[in-house]
Specification:
The chain is α+β, with helices and mostly antiparallel strands. It contains 14 helices and 18 strands. The chain is 38% helix and 19% strand. Strands 8, 14, 15, 16, 17 and 18 form a six-stranded mixed sheet that branches. α3 packs parallel to α10. The longest helix is centred in the last third of the chain and has 25 residues. Bound molecules: glutamic acid and magnesium ion.
Length: 464
């Protein structure tokens, strides 16, 4: 970052101070997501925003090595208590938080003190990969669905965090559940709207106390920012209602978990390459290559998209989580679900939904990995296998073998091993990020060794 850029950043912050003050803003939250998938933050009083924009707010690089329980891995490139990084708010993402009175929020990029992007800044990494696609005349539109379970009595103090008491009793997708949650959901939709989040849908999901919000597609960096903002808002509205939201992949040992499905479409200019081509379901050649790349790299991508030991309690067959490395049209048991959209609107709507990934994922790392995998498939002109139109879990093992259907990794260890062998992802992430991902995952594997599903789900329930 050159000195003149620092000056421009300061001037941009100074220009918004009056508006923020009139909106009652007292402080600005500077959030980012660590390797384990936890959103960490610092904040500055409003008057310090210009200084934070220009010089950044200090935060140690030690957090790259943090695990889900706040213990720290002694990593090759992370986990040291020495040094300092600067959090620079990206003011294009600045929002007044509607559910946290007096606060604004701006996503940050992490820089060194010398003004170079921090090599492990996942937001900068994603922006770099978006730029690489742009050099080939391509862009991606992305959206991350947010599922969460709403719990009672799980506040920070006083209650027993080991029990989960769903805040809602009504049936899955049920009107009764919606009525129970009516005021809460109104406050949530109002807050998201005030923050400029384009909500597509809200509904009660399948699991106990589970709800879902989906949002419109955006540029990948903005989509990851939105996912952070949506989750922050959901937690703030939940706490204001005396409740608590869990985005953990598996909130209780039994039942269905929380997914964090990612919708992606690939574009050349104004042309959606997921539609209008000669391929299956209207895929263009490039759209097929991109989708085939996603599918081929899924086992390794799970180290990023299903980053918790608990992720593998969720990623099981016949739970709509997409536990098999297959693709299919509107198949909710396929890891990659192809969505054409209604006829007449396909040029705008066609996309692929990566279903296997969950709410513990760092959205910047995950989108970076998906872009790298898709781009590799496109460059190599990969072709897709036949789509799958059944739930592979209903076949016998032999039936799956005959159909060439393979399960995704069933443990974090298996996913990390696949990741360490995946040259495309290792190259895209670079040695520092890739090594840290593997070390943090192995740290969590050790942390939860021998833990029962009940203990594991309780341990991570209120962390994500
Ligand atoms: N909750 C499911 C999951 O674990 C997904 C349900 C759905 O298809 O929306 O991903
Ligand atoms: Mg859902």
């Amino acid at each position: 970052m050159e000195l003149h850029e620092r000056d421009e950043r300061r001037a941009a912050a100074e220009a918004v101070l009056d508006d923020l003050a009139s909106a009652g803003v007292v402080g600005v939250v500077l959030p980012w997501v660590d390797t384990s998938g936890i959103t960490r933050m610092k904040s500055v009083p409003l008057a310090r925003l210009p200084s934070a924009a220009q010089w950044g707010a200090g935060m140690s690089p030690v957090f790259d090595g943090f695990l889900v329980d706040d213990s720290i891995v002694a990593g090759t490139h992370a986990g040291s208590a020495i040094g300092d990084l600067r959090l620079h708010p990206d003011l294009s993402g600045l929002r007044v938080l509607a559910a946290q009175d007096g606060w604004a929020w701006a996503p940050v990029d992490r820089y060194t003190q010398d003004g170079a992007p921090h090599v492990q800044c996942s937001r900068s990494l994603l922006r770099r990969l978006v730029g690489e696609l742009a050099e080939e005349g391509l862009s991606v539109r992305a959206a991350i669905e947010v599922e969460w379970a709403l719990g009672e009595g799980a506040g920070p103090a006083g209650s027993d965090p080991r029990t989960f008491r769903p805040a809602l009793a009504g049936p899955a997708y049920g009107m009764t559940r919606h009525i129970e949650v009516s005021d809460y959901a109104r406050d949530l939709l109002e807050a998201l709207d005030a923050q400029g989040v384009a909500v597509d849908q809200f509904h009660p999901e399948y699991a106990a106390g589970q709800l879902e919000v989906s949002v419109g597609a955006q540029d990948p960096v903005a989509a990851a920012d939105t996912s952070l903002l949506v989750r922050t808002t959901i937690q703030a509205v939940s706490i204001a209602h005396g409740l608590r939201a869990s985005f953990s992949p598996k909130v209780t040992a039994d039942g269905v978990g929380n997914g964090g499905h990612v919708h992606l479409s690939l574009w050349r200019g104004t042309e959606n390459l997921m539609n209008g081509g000669p391929g299956t379901f209207g895929l263009t050649e490039d759209g097929e290559g991109f989708t085939a790349g996603l599918l081929a790299h899924l086992p390794a991508l799970l180290a990023v998209g299903c980053p918790s030991v608990a992720s593998y309690l969720r990623l099981v067959p016949s739970h709509w989580a997409g536990a098999y490395a297959v693709w299919g049209l509107e198949n909710r048991e396929a890891a990659v679900r192809f969505v054409t959209g209604p006829s007449g609107n396909r040029q705008a709507a066609a996309n692929v939904e990566v279903k296997c990934v969950d709410g513990a994922a760092n959205p910047y790392l995950l989108l970076a990995g998906l872009l790298a995998a898709g781009q590799a498939g496109l460059r190599a002109g990969c072709v897709l296998p036949d789509p799958v139109a059944i739930d592979p879990g209903t076949l016998t093992e032999e039936g799956r073998r005959e159909a060439g259907i393979v399960a995704l990794p069933t443990s974090l260890e298996e996913a990390v091993t696949a990741f360490e062998r995946d040259d495309v992802l290792l190259t895209a992430f670079g040695p520092e990020v890739a090594t840290t991902i593997a070390e943090v995952r192995r740290g969590e594997i050790t942390l939860f060794e021998g833990t029962s599903p009940e203990e594991l789900t309780a341990a991570v329930r209120w962390r994500y």
